[in-house]
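Quick start: read one record
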Amino acid sequence: MVIFKQLNIIFAFYLTGEGIALLLPFSFPGGLIGLFLLYLTLLLKWLHLEDVKLLSDFFLKYMAFFFIPAGVSIISSYTLIESAIIPIIGVLIISTIITMAITGLVVDYLIKRVEHD
C-alpha cells in the first residue's frame, strides 16, 4: 500500500507538470516541470522524503532499464541515421570532451574556493 501511495504522489506531480506545460505559451517538458515541483515541495518540507523514498530508490536503482526503449528506437531507426553516423559520433565525442572539461574546471574552482575559505 505504501508503494501505491508513493506512486500516486509521483504521478500527481507528473500530471500537474503536464497540465502546466499545456497552459504555457511555449513548448516545455511537463515531466521536467513536475520534477521541479516535486523538488520544490521537498525543499520547502511540504512533502517529506519518506513519502516518496521507497519508490524513488527503486527508480534510481533500475534507471538503466528505462533507457532500453530509447536504445531500441535508435537501433530501429538506424537506416534513417546511417548517412549521418560520422557527424553524430563526432558531435558525441566533442560534446563529451567539452562537458568533462567544463565539469573539471568547475570542480577545480569549487575545491580551491572551499580551501581558500
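The chain has two domains: 1-68, 80-117.
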